[in-house]
Design goal:
single chain, 370 residues, alpha+beta, eleven-stranded antiparallel sheet, two-stranded antiparallel ribbon
Length: 370
């Protein structure tokens, strides 16, 4: 049984890693900021005159992230926030499920319930015992940092043009070009609206093994499928003047100030693999206390929203109790991220399992993260 389960996990991981990604989903998000020709977000192809390189620099590139750090920060934050939420999914309990021991060749249950689902309980499997399982989670992302993904509104500002970039700017406009808003065209901005649909399905293959009565080790191998579709609408808002200076197409006297873009794509592959160990420190008649440590490695593709792109390490203190068919539990811990834009986090989870029947368990978990 142990050997078969191990080979199953290895086969699943190899298959997922060998399968080519269908799309670079982070690039898809970036494409929602590209309108018309060019590969730079917010490049104004209509404003830029291909026969006049100075025009390209003067107006076509004045909103692109390389020219305006704030614009780049907004786009990078949105991509990072979406990616980190997709890849920071809970992967399930190390001990959730039904365990058995064989007595006289007959399997007998050794756990009173089949939970928890996402939380941890302090009980360990016991030396030589194996727990293998598969969990499936399907999620639809509604918001990022409290903002509805169907209505993300951003404003992108103009670069501050100075004499260093355009010698003679002060005398040309009759003002101090080192100040934002001089010349007047620097007051133009781009209104941007994003509508994004994001769906993720994870298949987690987990294996736990009791090295000692008080020590379990395990591995969780997720296979992730991510679907993404989105539309974006952008509008240049001129500050004033008889003719437009910034536009997506047309001419200064008849400008096209609105543009839209749509993308869609999907990817399937190996997610971030987790290795885990749980130590039971104390056990009483009704309660138990344990510590759990796990590391989630950067095995999933960050560009396809299958992995985080960095390793995270988590430590949990676990207390659980058993009162007949009712089993409450609580976890508190800390998670450290070795890279990326995510802060470290304080974790807290409370819940319970209730064995309603030999074939059914009610499991409730409330998961929080600060």
């Amino acid at each position: 049984m142990k050997r078969t389960a191990c080979w199953l996990l290895v086969a699943v991981a190899a298959t997922a890693m060998a399968r080519p990604a269908q799309a670079q989903l982070k690039d898809k998000i970036n494409q929602l900021f590209i309108f018309g020709s060019g590969e730079d977000p917010l490049f104004l192809a209509g404003t830029a005159d291909p026969n006049n390189p100075q025009s390209i620099r003067a107006h076509g590139e004045h909103f692109i992230p390389s020219a305006v750090s704030g614009n780049g920060t907004l786009i990078a934050f949105l991509e990072s926030a979406i990616g980190s939420n997709v890849t920071n999914l809970p992967i399930g309990s190390t001990s959730g499920g039904q365990t058995y021991q064989f007595v006289g060749g007959v399997p007998q249950a050794t756990s009173t319930s089949k939970g928890p689902v996402f939380a941890e309980r302090a009980q360990t499997l016991g030396v030589g015992r194996v727990l293998a399982g598969v969990s499936v989670n399907s999620l639809h992302f509604k918001s990022v940092r409290g903002v509805d993904l169907h209505d993300v509104e951003l404003n992108f500002t103009h670069e501050n043009v100075t004499n260093a970039e355009f010698p003679g700017c002060d005398s040309l406009v009759g003002g101090d070009c080192s100040q934002m808003g001089v010349p007047t065209l620097e007051n133009d901005f781009i209104q941007f609206n994003l509508n994004l649909d994001l769906n993720v399905t994870s298949y987690v293959f987990a294996l736990s093994y009791g090295l000692r009565d008080w020590l379990d080790v395990g591995v969780a191998v997720p296979v992730i499928t991510t679907w993404l579709s989105g539309t974006s609408n952008a509008q240049v808002v001129p500050f004033g003047g008889p003719t437009a200076v910034h536009f997506f197409g047309g001419t200064p006297s008849d400008p096209v100030l609105n543009a839209s873009r749509s993308v869609q794509g999907s990817a399937t592959g190996l997610g971030d693999v987790s290795a885990r160990a749980k130590i039971r420190l104390a056990r009483g008649a009704h309660t138990a206390f344990a510590l759990l440590g796990d590391a989630r490695f950067a095995t999933g593709s960050e560009m396809d929203l299958l992995g985080s792109g960095y390793t995270s390490i988590r430590g949990l203190a676990i207390i659980s109790a058993q009162f007949g068919a009712f089993a409450p539990h609580a976890n508190i811990g800390y998670e450290h991220h070795t890279g990326g834009d995510l802060n470290d986090a304080i974790l807290a989870t409370v819940g319970f399992e209730h064995a309603m029947a030999p074939w059914a368990t009610l499991a409730v978990d409330v998961i929080s993260q600060l």
